[in-house]
Amino acid sequence: MTKILSCTLHLIFIVLASKGQAQFIYNYTAENSPLPFNTVRCLESSSSALWIGTDEGLAKLSGGNNWTIYNAGNSGLWSNDVRALKNDGDSLLWIGTVQGGLFSFDGLNWTNYTPLNSGLGDYLVRGIDIDIQGNIWIATTEGLFVYDRTNWNTYTTNDGLLSNNTTTICAAGNTKYIGTINGGVLYFDETNNFINHTIVSSGIPDNSALDIEIDNNGRPWFISPAAGLFVDDGDGGPWDVFNSGNSAIASNSLLCLQHGPQGQIFIGTETDGIVTKNGNQYSNLNIDNSALTDNHILCLEKNEENTLWAGTFNGGLCEIHDIAGLLQKGSYPPNIHPTIVNAGASIHFSKNVNCTYSLVNMLGDEFKTGTLKNSRTINIPKTIKPGVVFIYYSIDNTIFTRRVIVH
Q1: Minimal CA–CA distance to 124: which of 111, 135, 113, 109?
Q2: Residue 373 burial by CB count (10 A; 0-12/13-18/19+): exposed, middle or buried?
Q3: Nearest-angstrom CA–CA distance, 300 and 223
Q4: What is the pLDDT of residue 22?
Q5: How many CB atoms are closer than 10 A to CB 322?
Q6: Domain spanning 336-406: CATH 2.60.40.1930
Q7: What is the pLDDT of residues 97-138, one digit of tens each?
Q8: Which is the most buried residue in 59, 74, 142, 374, by most CB within 10 A?
């Protein structure tokens, strides 16, 4: 039997001095809530609940702070390591696991699909989506599988894929967009013929993609683990690329994304928290300037109330309210770019600022200070030794920190 639990939430309140605006973040961890584990791999919202996939089971958070935990000890979910979730019309949930294959759950009954009892060819399911015909698309490390709820189809390197290690699926209209590791991105049409876009064939910046979202204009956006963010402005190009070398994005190591209510983009990074892209303006929510519990963001989800949920690697689940405030220009300190530079080069804020700053090396030695007045550029001394440099800067009596790597 499943067990419904309640918990008292710990509200963490932070005031941003530059605007005097309050931003609320609720943090759920294994220590202060029934969350089964502090590594949150995937999130999926329904009209009445948030589903949370962790390394130690599946959690359901519903109204009134009610928790239901499903695991191998109390349910038909016999594999606790959950990696993918997809809501099927609020009546059915599809669950991808590391060692148990695919599960479906209708609130009472569990069904399990594995290589032993179905056409699914792998026990590790990394991504799930449902197309407009109701077909279930499943990304695994052993290929791509499609289940029409009766029959199975399989796509592997034997069928023209460049990699069997598929990561994510985004079904939009008649097109299904598939991400892979080292195999490019795949576009499947309405008859399931596909085109493979790679660095060589199409000019994308990376042959690996971990997440895909469609914007209000129907364009697919791709998250790369090494080359930043890119979007298809046509049909297989041209591509716009946003990375730490050509924009104020905080990192090139990106893991997940969500679109905001007016076309903004929320980006989860491996080391720099949550980046918000609002046109050409970038802001960064991290452990230094907010109550965010971890800078390593594994998944993001936005519900109907415009609350942004973030699953972290070590910090549990973060519930971020007041997205509109988070998106306001200037609500958070400007980013610095590029984050990898040569000695003697310059780094730039994403907009003009009035601030004092200091540069500090890994030993804690301060080697440069200065003041910017309606300016945005800091010069790195030519004599600096290679390594990590911390930039401390004060805006309106609030001190912020950024990190750059100097070659």
Answers
A1: 113
A2: exposed
A3: 13
A4: 40
A5: 17
A6: yes
A7: 999 999 999 999 999 999 999 999 999 999 999 999 999 999
A8: 59
